[in-house]
Inverse folding.
């Protein structure tokens, strides 16, 4: 690997004994543009997500701290991981992650640890939802200390999983595309192969199995569960809110899994075969899919959660500029008065229902 190789060079550069690749503008510039879009939309979307979830109508839910933590994880990788890759694609002095060993280690560690922390966080969200659904006759509120421990665990889990390459058990090297760094998926030692298999298991297979188990138990519980409280309508409203939230989190999980599955599959094949099977341009596809996972959650929350969407529209500064004041007519006043009278009859029941809904997860 020559440190003087430029970005637009067409000279093959050896990553390891099994791989050579070409760096050209046809590869780097489109990749850099897509990464820039991911960085911008991911930053804006996740910052807005945190602002929305900090509003009073969302703060009481058990699931909210984990949703905020997931957004923070995405922001960490966007701020500390992606700029290295983006800068490498636009610089004319060379691909930084290839020229600097420290940059490569930093990029690989941040990308890996935050990715695993994300799926660990999604796993904890599934467990919290299962706890909320199965705890019908008792309070489901999770204490602050317990929630802090859960959030800390997700970070520790991600960091610990990526420590071995720092201490000599495998290593961080440029990936198949030669643009960003990752664990060496084509190791030359049995120890490296063992670490790769362990990493895939604890970073993808195990969390996915726990998530599937939780959703299976949740589905089974809801299917056979019968109302147990005196107020069936309140419990039905609570269950409806739970199902909506479960669908939203399930969509977030599905988006994450679909984003990372191609990268995971390609990495496993490379480890088993002992060589990268994709060309540098082909290797960009699973790499970009995995990195794009940071933009999906805000989209899922906005599309699938009415309350989240309403809060988002309320806090966006420019929203008030486009909104127009509507003056009430006599007909609308009459309809409003009638609506108030009708709503007054069911006010107490709605308040009880909202109390349960606000603490659904």
């Amino acid at each position: 690997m020559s440190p003087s190789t430029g970005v637009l060079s067409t000279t093959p550069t050896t990553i390891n004994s099994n791989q050579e690749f070409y760096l050209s503008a046809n590869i780097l510039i489109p990749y850099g543009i897509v990464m820039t879009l991911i960085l911008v939309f991911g930053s804006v979307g996740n910052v807005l997500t945190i602002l929305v979830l900090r509003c009073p109508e969302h703060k009481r839910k058990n699931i909210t701290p984990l949703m905020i933590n997931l957004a923070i994880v995405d922001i960490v990788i966007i701020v500390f991981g992606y700029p290295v890759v983006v800068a490498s694609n636009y610089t004319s002095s060379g691909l930084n992650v290839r020229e600097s060993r420290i940059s490569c280690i930093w990029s690989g560690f941040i990308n890996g640890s935050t990715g695993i922390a994300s799926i660990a966080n999604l796993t904890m969200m599934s467990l919290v939802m299962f706890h909320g659904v199965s705890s019908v006759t008792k309070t489901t509120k999770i204490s602050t200390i317990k929630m802090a421990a859960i959030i800390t665990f997700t970070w520790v889990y991600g960091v610990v999983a990526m420590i071995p390459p720092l201490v000599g058990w495998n290593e961080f090297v440029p990936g198949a595309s030669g643009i960003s760094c990752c664990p060496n998926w084509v190791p030359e030692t049995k120890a490296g192969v063992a670490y790769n298999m362990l990493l895939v298991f604890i970073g993808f297979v195990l969390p996915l199995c726990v998530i599937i188990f939780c959703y299976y138990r949740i589905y089974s519980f809801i299917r056979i569960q019968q109302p147990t409280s005196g107020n069936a309508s309140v419990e039905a409203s609570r269950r409806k809110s739970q199902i909506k939230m479960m669908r939203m989190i399930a969509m977030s999980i599905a988006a994450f899994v679909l984003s990372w599955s191609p990268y995971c599959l390609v990495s496993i094949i490379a480890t088993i075969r002992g060589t990268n099977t994709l060309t540098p341009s082909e290797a960009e596809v699973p790499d970009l899919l995995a990195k794009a996972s940071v933009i999906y959650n805000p989209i899922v929350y906005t599309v699938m959660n009415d309350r989240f969407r309403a809060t988002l529209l309320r806090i966006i500064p420019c929203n008030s500029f486009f909104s127009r004041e509507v003056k009430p007519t006599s007909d609308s006043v009459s309809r409003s008065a009638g609506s108030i009278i009708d709503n007054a009859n069911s006010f107490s029941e709605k308040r009880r229902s909202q109390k349960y809904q606000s603490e659904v997860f």
Remarks:
- The chain has a mean pLDDT of 78.
- Residues 232-273 form the longest helix (42 residues).
- The beta strands are 13-16, 19-21, 172-174, 181-183.
